[in-house]
What we know:
Elements: H1 5-23, H2 32-45, E1 49-54, E2 58-64, E3 72-78, H3 105-122, E4 128-134, H4 142-148, H5 151-155, E5 157-166, E6 174-175, E7 179-182, E8 184-193, E9 197-198, H6 208-219, H7 221-225, E10 233-242, E11 248-249, E12 252-261, H8 264-284, E13 288-297, E14 300-302, H9 304-318, E15 323-324, H10 336-342, E16 345-351, H11 370-384
Parallel strand pairs: 3-4, 3-5, 5-16, 6-15
Antiparallel strand pairs: 1-2, 2-4, 6-16, 7-14, 8-12, 8-13, 9-11, 10-12
Amino acid sequence: MPILNRVADLQREVTEWRRHLHTQPELMFDVDDTAAFVAEKLTAFGVDEVVQGIGRTGVVGLIHGRGTSGRTIGLRADMDALPLDEVSGKPWSSKVQGKMHACGHDGHTAMLLGAAKYLAETRNFNGNVAVIFQPAEEGGGGGNLMVQDGMMERFGIEEVYGMHNMPGIPVGQFAICKGPIMAATDQFTITVKGLGGHAAEPHKAIDPITIGAQVVSGLQQIAARNTDPLSSIVVSVTRFNAGFAFNVIPNEAILNGTVRTLSEANRSLAEAKIKAIAEGIAAAHGGSAEVDYQRNYPVTVNHDAETDHAANVASEVAGEANVERNYAPSMAGEDFSFMLNARPGAFIMIGNGQTPNLHNPAYDFNDEAIPFGISYWVRLTEQRLTD
């Protein structure tokens, strides 16, 4: 099934929705206007049930098919933006200072709305489809809150699917893999405590800055010497704060960083090693270290059978030559992981072309991807909910 004629007809309208959303970005759970826009559209389409306030500000629309199988699949899009000032120069650039859709969630929302409109018109499937519009993907864990709110049970969702645009992949192409496709994203704070003193008399002090510097170097041994070389793990110290004057050795230094892993085993290893390295190095120099390790999003793991379903649908839409079935996992994180932990499903990448990268202030979603995304959602629903 190539691009559907009806979907091609919808492209201009969906593009208008997307660009409207792009001008009015909202952050985290504070997506009230976006959620209202989504709910208004779903109601106008004749979606059978529209529920707001799931996961605080999430929206779910339930569309009944022509058949009576009772099976339900979920299709998910995210709605929130990022705290950046846009420099794309597009006519539809953000009108809100300090906020922009730098990850394409406006495109994700618009494509799923387009699919909802088509599916509500045709209902050429046997069962139900839940279109899920999620807040707070960018660090707030909105997907987890929607799961905790009982979304899967309330709507009887048996499988769940997600999609994300990806710069660098040509428009009209898809990419997916079985197993881990995006990393767990943890963060840590290390507080190194020493003894402050005069910079001219370091022997009378315990310097937390030199201790902290050795901790930074020591943490790199986790990937280099503690983990299987074929495993994927990234430990990055991204902030180092200490001191307040040229001639004063401070009492403490604070290090912040992130850990990215593709397995729970490496995640636990990293947590244990960070604690041991920081405490050990600090103690060796007469100081101490406290480690606060926060587990954030888990690994996003695609289920085998559902990944095959998704890849087969993508090949129907774009052609087999335009589907990468062994996509290299990304070390970025994604809170669709919580939904995949709750139900079997798959997360797929859709090409955004040669555009600035995600989270870049010059980024913009490529509207030429819209018909491919809508066609994928439509055909996935019809294929998974056959008679």
